[in-house]
Amino acid sequence: MTKKHPVNEKSKQEQLEQFKTDDRNQALTTNQGLKLSEDEFSLKAGERGPTLMEDFHFREKMTHFDHERIPERIVHARGFAAHGEFELYDSLSEYTKAKFLQNPSVKTPVFVRFSTVAGSKGSAETVRDARGFATKFYTEEGNYDLVGNNIPVFFIQDAIKFPDLIHAVKPEPHNEMPQAASAHDTFWDFVANNQESAHMVMWSMSDRAIPRSLRMMEGFGVHTFRLVNAEGKAHFVKFHWKPVLGTHSLVWDEAQTISGKDPDFHRRDLWESIENGDYPEYELGIQIIDEEDEFKFDFDILDPTKLWPEEDIPVKLVGKMTLNRNVDNVFAETEQVAFHPGHVVPGIDFSNDPLLQGRLFSYTDTQLIRLGGPNFHELPINRPVCPFHNNQRDGYGRQTINKGPVSYHRNSLAANTPAPVPESEGGYAHYQEKVEGRKVRSRSESFKDHFSQATLFWNSMSAPEKEHIISAFSFELGKVKSKSVQQQVVDMFANVSTVLAKQVAQAIGATPPSGEDAPVTKSSPALSQEQTIKKPNTRKVAVIVANDFSSDLPQVLNSLKQQGIQPEIVSTTLQNVKGTDGSELEVQHTFLTSDSVLFDAVYVVGSSSADEKFRKEALTFAQEAFKHFKPIGATDEGVKWLQAAGLDSSPGVVTGETTRFTDEFIEAISAHRHWNRHVI
How does the average pLDDT of the chain come out, rounded? Predict the structure, then answer.
């Protein structure tokens, strides 16, 4: 018998050494060793033209990136989804021939997947990050995918840089840290050295990056698309989803705490809302620009780092989407759904936005590795509701059983079927845009303004929102180890606001810029969440109750419920609590199983029979809510407890008799946050 020897660890290490490489101070090449003269721009037909298929460097770089992870998505891995339907308000035949945008009486089935971008599938949901907002319309002409985010712009202008962005924001490869966070050196080094990211970074450091709920989050198509009507006339368009409940966010300390208390916070909120019949609703909005007005503005409408200010190009609300059914199986539906910006229907077409052009290649390429081959469209969640026929055959995961001998176009054995359909009968035909130009790796001069809209965003923020942005920069850069990177970022954002840069510099010990901000000449109120819709509907209130509660309490709870507010009883145990009149209330949570950050407001009722431990637990709830600027209510014994803790005389804190308390507390809940509160 052969004698077994222990593994020689040194020889194993030496074996691995031959595969190690240090890319520093080396020339940039393809994987075939070809030296590259350019890595900033994809190959285009003219500076503002479409990306060319012959760009082998772009395809190699993007293909490698798309196949880097198995099996979860490289980006948008952490997601949750729901089914619903879309209804049109009025026909859009003036702009498009897409059938699902013609008849207001037709309901189009939809499937929507929300997601974080940077984290792995197992990461928390309330991290600071952009959120995916991808909608699949199952139309009678085929599937249409509106694949967007909750931020209307992006970090980069050309898809060839997307692998670089994601490599920078993902956990650093030498230690695989930090997970689902941008507060580290490589991300901010990327930002400082790719200043086209300035506008998106302002959004990412704002409250928009930590939404309160997926139900209270805007969605944007990001790119400029085209709508084409039956006469062949085209308009440029941007798509928006406007939540009916308004756009609302968490505060940072609250978001961090929730990550530990309930890393499934957003999906739980969406799931429970649908199960309760509080269906999330979003209105579809479009911004329209005539083709002849393409160069009318002080920004390039094809630049994905730019938005179209709503005050200049109004958003027309054209329909409503309602999510009314949860998935039956997360893997089969949420995980196997495959979105692609190139899934379009007649009447919707593309622009030459170089980020969009790259996505048209990348998404299909990604699905090939993630879902095992070219037949991902046959998975139940991806199948269109209309029939589909072509000469594609075989491959991994094939479910269709094709009959007959013919699998090629132009044939006589099957009467040349399946046959192309003329455009006049619904066949898709690309918009015939005239394209001229030399084959170049370049970008239009009109894309080089990186700071004006970042400044517009800053100028549009309310005072609390600006404070939050400053704090976000200070936190993120405070985690960066490189003093050089910290200083580069401060210097970069001095181009946005010296007020912002100076305060961040002071917080992280960098050298502040000189000078002052220029007078504000333009702002966009639509960008501030202070202008959003504010309703009490579906807001969750922790009602802290012990035995011997007042007989008035059920009346207060009923009044809250009538306004769409969701009171949930919190007590010491899950045993029912009893009132002085013998009535009982079911307890949903204990102090051990819940936390103040999981609610939108706190209502302290207490009881004269409650012990000191109960009182301390109740005050912990109230004090944390107070710190996060949330509404707080108190009646009965709870009033005394708030008074003793010094919490009773601040904005958004409502105490008193039942007759006036209920209306005032509902009003406080409707305001959501009380920023004028002095937090102690």
Answer: 93
